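Re: the 106-residue chain
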Amino acid sequence: MEWFILFIAGLFETAWAVGMKYSDGFTKIYPTIFTFTAMALSVLFLSISLKTLPIGTAYAIWTGIGAFGTAIFGILLFGESKDFVRLFFILLIVVGIIGLKLFSKS
């Protein structure tokens, strides 16, 4: 269950990063509220997962999910680069996340 909670924390990590883009420097009220809510939920779910998961592994996976998700949404929503090298390195983040999960003792 702690891995699922960590995954949810990573999704909220992605959500607040994307929300921050839409908040336009925290000048738009609804995207700003969304961003801060997603931030709080992200940290809350991370802290719950840390009750049983090692901090180094959980933190790396949390930020990895956030980085991967934000990069994908950047491509889909904001027209960011889809060149092969960029996608390759995004894939390496995913490989790192999977490796940490597979070889974690928790």
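The mean pLDDT is 95.
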